[in-house]
Amino acid sequence: MQYRKFGNTGIELSLLGFGAMRLPMKPDNQGVSHISMDESVDVLCYGFEQGINYVDTAYGYCAGESEIAVGRALKNGWRDKVYLSTKLPLWNVNEQADVRRLLEEQLGKLQTDHIDFYHFHAVNADSFENKILKLNLLDEALKAKERGQIRFLSFSFHDKPEKMLPVIDTGAFTSVLCQYNLLDRANEPSIKYAAEKGLGVIAMGPVGGGRLAFAGSIFEDALEGRVSTPELALRFVLSNPDINLALSGMSTRQMVDGNVKIAGSNAALSQQEMSRIQELQEKCRSLADIYCTGCGYCMPCPFEVNIPVCLEALIYHKVYRMELPARDKYAAIGGEWIKGKTAYACTNCGACEAKCPQKVKIREHLAEAAAVFGK
Ligand code: SF4
Ligand code: SF4
After folding, report:
1. What DSSP designation does 300 have?
2. In the chain, how many domains are there?
3. CA distances from 40 to 14, 204, 300, 369 (A)
4. In terms of DSSP bridges, do strands 16-19 and 245-249 run parallel, antiparallel, or are they unpaired?
């Protein structure tokens, strides 16, 4: 396993972090899914034995049971050797006192007296303004630090890339966790900014949340089939010197072995390999005539169409030929994590196209998405 310095903390973290969001689950008699506790503890401890020294969980992962499994795994002699990260569910915070209440509940589930990296979960412009600043949550987090319950304050991020900058500029955060992978490089400039400001940067979804794990992906052509797509995807993320580690959600020893092998070798891609990938990305996009970068400047749509996500699903379908991920992405619009409506709600008003710096023919592509994916 290779290790990198983590921002300004003076800590060295393994290139691979254990994401505890996909631990093994099994249904109970009523068909309700619960974590498979022994299996989960086993795979976590196995990862730690292979040199992973960062584990990332959250209040709600695995039906709220991930923190319990992580706590049990750390009890097996790993608590002082592995850095523990978890997340405060901002959507459950309505007043300052909720921070302490939730934090203490989490410490109980994790069977520990402190959390190394405590993240405000899924920060966006709205939760930054209306929760973190309005409810003065930074003060509350500072008190938790003074009590020794938190070592470092961090945030995970889900919004337009530039919305990350004011959060970094508060100076309150030690690290940031954000999306970055072969298919989604939109956060690259913000990641650079964070690293320049001394924050540790963690990439989530290095293999595109599993999407890139599809055999036969077009990216394998980039290296003439010499590496598998998941390997290429992880190596791509770790090639960015501004990224300190990549989190991967793992549920089996076999997955741990595969990722550890990559993070233990010289993970970075050569300059030549990077240029080849870049060329291929550009070629793919121009072939499909969709230049959407996901910047979100076309939003909001007066009819609530989630334009960037509709176009992203269309790109998966048309450019990368990843049928299932394309349909999953489109189907998630309007759910808990992806707000808004599908392309079906487009009235053809044209308001979005004037705002698009790439001059994407949004209406044309939305009509195509609606035809391909239905409602
Ligand atoms: S359609 Fe244009 S403005 Fe909208 S996300 Fe894509 S590139 Fe940005
Ligand atoms: S053209 Fe469609 S997507 Fe664009 S702003 Fe109008 S309704 Fe929204």
Report:
1. P
2. 2
3. 20, 20, 41, 39
4. parallel
Contact 106, 68 (CB under 8 A): no
Other residues' Cβ atoms within 10 Å of the Cβ of residue 253: 14
Residue 284 lies in a domain: no
Do 32 and 124 fall within a single domain? yes
Within a domain: 278: no
Closest ligand 1 atom to Cα of 299: 4
343 shares its domain with 262: no
Alpha-carbon distance 30 to 286, whole Å?
50
For residue 290 and ligand 1, the question of a CB distance below 6 A is answered with no
Does ligand 1 come within 6 angstroms of the Cβ of 144?
A: no
For the stretch 200-223, pLDDT in tens is 999 987 665 455 554 345 666 665
Both 256 and 362 in one domain: the answer is: no
Cα separation of 334 and 349, whole Å? 21
Listing DSSP states for 186-204 in one string gives TTHHHHHHHHHTT-EEEEE
Same domain for 315 and 229, yes or no, is no
Nearest residue to 11 via CA among 280, 156, 200: 200
Ligand 2 atom showing the smallest separation from residue 347 Cα: 7
Alpha carbons 323 and 112: distance in angstroms, whole number: 43
Question: End of a domain among 248, 273, 298?
Answer: 273
138 and 246 inside one domain: yes
Does ligand 2 come within 6 angstroms of the Cβ of 123? no
> Cβ distance 114 to 150 under 8 Å?
yes
Q: 299 and 269 in one domain?
A: no
Task: Count the helices and strands in the chain (H runs, E runs).
Answer: 14, 12
pTM: 0.78
What is the reported pLDDT for 133?
A: 97
The mean pLDDT value of the chain amounts to: 89
Q: Which domain holds residue 28?
A: 3-273
Coil, strand, or helix at residue 123?
A: strand
Point out the ligand 1 atom lying closest to the alpha carbon of residue 355.
3
